[in-house]
Specification:
3 domains, alpha+beta, Immunoglobulin-like, Double Stranded RNA Binding Domain, five-stranded mixed beta sheet, 498 residues
């Protein structure tokens, strides 16, 4: 009986304790009877300093940690909606990673495990309630307005940076093309294509191909039309007019001009060594598409060409590292640009070709004795005649030239031929080396000639040349060597004598 009384007393005590707990109700945030704070039902509006966000989470098992994790997720969702961040198919991997990092940092900040990157964000209040369905936790977070605005701008820039690198130039190119500025449009399409293949956007190949094709369409509409041709001048003198062309949107000079197009000019010059070299220059079209190039005075004699071609090489540099799978499209575009080219013909004459000139040049053996050959003189006459020179052989004995000083020869020619010719070319060529390799004879000859003006006695030009030739016998090799030497000397006179 005594044992039963103790059990009854303990049961009644426990029952009274339970009844007492239900009757008094929970404190605020501790049970179903507590009145929720105002912010639970009506989230506060932002004020001068903060923007407020709320979130709630429920745990059916009554776990506070589980409910708080869900509530933090709700706060994060509200923040992301406020920032306007939306992942789409156009979102770059960089932007996606930036968003992921930011969300991780926000969650850490809300759990007091801040990474230090998110500033101005904190939990202002918490409220929890226990119900038959478990436990629900409400969170009120506040974010400093200034810090939140900075974060919003940062994410917007990250999202737009690579997308605008493609869409921005492409849109600008379309506007330029609609205004007839085809060259600038092609450049901006190439910028967009370059940005596309360098980005991690989705559908990179489609964007690249679209912009390369649009650049090609712009270039395909362009033509370069010659406005003059077949210019003439004398060596050492500038052309009377520049080489002129028009870059057009069409095919004729009457079509609209393309403004601001870069045109490359390629022309020939002669080095001091007598070897040709290529020079280039770039010019731009004016507002009406016209372009002109005043070529430097030619330093050679003969017929030559000058070319003008569309040049978009600067914009093409951004495509140098294009992946192999896209290179064929770049190559096709390059070939299209190269086709936009025109060629001018011109002729440079020598003033010397209009001056009557006599020749007294003799061939000698290795000991400087005269020989029967006249091949150097023949090669010289032939070359100068082909260039239009007024030349003829002077009736001069070899003894009047060989072994005498240039001054003595010049005076002799002046005394005997003034009034017949205005200039004279005199000198000698002799054998300087002779070898034989089995059945082949190799001979080298060397010559020096001088050009003088008879009236004044002035030396205008001195040319020194050597030539090597071979043959099955000495006579054939010797004849060939002297003839080629004369031609080389003639070429030097043509290109150097004014």
């Amino acid at each position: 009986m005594k044992r039963l009384s103790v059990f009854v007393i303990l049961f009644i005590g426990a029952l009274l304790l339970f009844t007492s707990g239900c009757a008094s109700g929970p404190q605020a945030g501790e049970g179903p009877a507590a009145k929720p704070p105002e912010w639970v039902l009506n989230p506060p509006e932002s004020d001068d300093q903060y923007v407020y966000f709320t979130g709630s989470g429920t745990s059916s098992s009554g776990s506070l940690a589980e409910a708080e994790e869900a509530a933090r997720g709700g706060v994060l969702d509200e923040i992301m909606r406020y920032l306007g961040v939306r992942i789409t198919s156009e979102t770059t991997a960089t932007a996606r990673a930036s968003v992921d990092d930011f969300q991780t940092d926000v969650v850490q900040q809300l759990t007091s495990r801040s990474s230090g990157r998110v500033t101005g964000l904190e939990i202002a209040e918490k409220w929890q309630v226990e119900q038959a369905g478990g436990l629900t936790l409400y969170l009120l977070a506040r974010y400093n307005k200034t810090d939140l605005a900075k974060e919003k701008r940062r994410l917007e820039e990250v999202f737009q940076e690579k997308i605008e690198a493609v869409s921005g130039p492409e849109l600008e190119a379309q506007q330029l093309q609609s205004r007839g500025r085809l060259y600038q449009a092609a450049v901006r399409y190439l910028d967009a294509a370059s940005a596309a293949f360098k980005s991690d956007l989705e559908n990179v190949e489609i964007k690249f191909e679209r912009n390369i094709n649009q650049a090609s369409d712009a270039i395909r509409s362009i033509a370069i039309v010659k406005l003059n041709d077949n210019l003439n001048t004398f060596m050492g003198q500038e052309f009377e007019e520049p080489f002129r062309a028009k870059v057009v949107n069409g095919s004729t000079a009457d079509d609209p001009g393309v403004e601001g197009a870069t045109v490359k000019v390629v022309y020939k010059v002669m080095r001091s060594s007598g070897r040709p070299a290529v020079r280039t220059a770039t010019v731009k079209t004016d507002a009406d598409g016209f372009v002109s190039f005043q070529a430097p005075a030619p330093n050679f004699v003969g017929k030559e060409q000058l070319t003008m071609s569309l040049d978009i090489s600067d914009a093409m540099e951004s495509l140098l590292d294009v992946p192999d799978k896209l290179y064929s499209q770049v190559e096709g575009f390059e070939q299209l640009v190269l086709s936009k080219k025109i060629t001018f013909s011109f002729e440079s004459e020598s003033m010397a070709s209009r001056i009557s000139t006599g020749i007294a040049v003799f061939d000698l053996d290795a000991s400087a004795n005269p020989i029967a050959l006249t091949e150097t003189s023949a090669g010289l006459l032939e070359k100068l005649g082909q260039a239009g020179f007024q030349v003829n052989n002077l009736p001069v004995a070899v003894t009047n030239v060989a072994g005498r000083s240039s001054a003595q020869v010049a005076q002799f020619l002046k005394n005997n031929f003034s009034g017949q010719v205005e200039r004279a070319i005199f000198g000698t060529a002799k054998i300087s080396d002779h070898t034989q390799d089995k059945d082949t004879v190799i001979i080298q000859v060397t010559g020096t000639v001088t050009v003088v003006e008879l009236a004044s006695g002035n030396t205008l030009l001195t040319v020194n040349k050597s030539k090597r030739a071979q043959g099955t016998n000495a006579s054939a090799a010797l004849s060939t060597a002297f003839k080629k030497l004369g031609e080389d000397i003639g070429e030097a006179i043509i290109n150097q004598l004014q």
